[in-house]
Amino acid sequence: MKKKIWISIGTIAILLIIGVVYLLHSWGVFATSFKEANNDTLEVKQQPLPIPPLLEDKNPDSNKAEFEITAQEGSMEFFDGTITKTRGYNGDFLGPVIRVRTGEEVSVKVKNELDESTTLHWHGLEVDGENDGGPHNEIKPGETWYPEFTIEQPAATLWYHPHQMHKTGKQVYEGMAGLFIIEDEVSDSLNIPKDYGVNDVPLVIQDRRFDKEGQFDYELGMKDSIVGFEGDTILVNGAVNPYLEVPQGMVRLRILNGSNGRIYNLEFSNKQAFYQIASDGGFLEESVKMNELTLGPGERAEILVDFSNLAKNETVELLDQGINFMSFVVSKDSDKEFIVPEKLTTIEKIEESKATTTRVFNFQGTGSSVSINGEQMDMDRIDEEVKLGATEIWEVGNFTGQTHPFHAHGAQFQILERDGNPPPANESGWKDTFLVAPGENVRVIATFKHKGIFMYHCHILEHEDAGMMGQFSVE
After folding, report:
1. In terms of Cα–Cα distance, which of 249, 235, 90, 248 is closest to 176?
2. pLDDT at 41
3. Where does the record place the Plastocyanin-like domain (predicted)?
């Protein structure tokens, strides 16, 4: 009896601590401005938005694309006269954009020039487990990994990043991430902006903390372990406070929330509407008019923004919860007129009657005790066994006090319900990552087409590293 009493008291104490932390977090007590973090000696001037280069295909004249990626140490001048130690792919920070087509065979030479092991995970790509790049695909220092796969999914904006066991958060934080873009006949046919870097622009949004010497500060405190890492400075494509010169017309933005733990609520300073045309796994069936876009860690969205009603040299800011972190400057006439498509593509809905199994995944715990279904990640344990070709319904519940993004490898999902209600229109397409609010239950459906061992986890990287992850096999 005494043991049960002490367990109850301990549980109550933990819940009280969690509650206090979340209240303080929501009231902004933990939030620090750039100068409050002892960074007032660091200065930054507004600069043009860097555009990640397209990675060269080493074999452009065949149906097999061949790429080379090197994980390497680097350095960046985020602030005037201050050099920050970083990591990146084929460069100092972040990585080039890999662009391929549906049906294309792809091979990648991935070399690790870091002083520690890493992996390279293709987030959102439907491939077999041996080529997925999860923690089982470890690349030791000085070694090279040679994944090969065929693109078997529609046009989409995906991304790649490390997935090293217990070190994903730190390696992504240091700069290791890049976009992976798929094109197909549908994307070719749509009358939407397609001039990469001009009116079709990637925005990799991440937050960071810097110490007074201008180095990354990734020392995790209590709040970071509980709610995930959140920085006081937002980077876009690796730049602080950038601006983008845009034509006086339609612009397509491919947005990635590449942050470790921050959820963004994006809107424009002039409150103008925009149209979401794609989610994680590709185009929506119809464009969705919106004024605000919420993206959890790992989620992507493509949006169309019409700047034709703005005057030349007029500036509009992109805001997160009212805070400006980049600007758009209308600088020139548009070369072409675009109209927001009413119909984008056709998505074949997966019927619930096709599902042979329903599985339940519950987010639980906090801090170092986070788990899914009461279990923490064990590389030697398979948590779920899925039959190859099976269609399944997964129910994801949240029994914690904060919102978690759920991500699974090797498949794209369709959201059936959120607490018994249909998903919002901008979540009606393909999703590989989706937010689950406290107390919420989200039902999704997918067909598993590739063999291997795959991960499912919270995409708050500090939670993933702490064990809020499991693995399933498809055979």
Report:
1. 90
2. 63
3. 72-185, 363-474
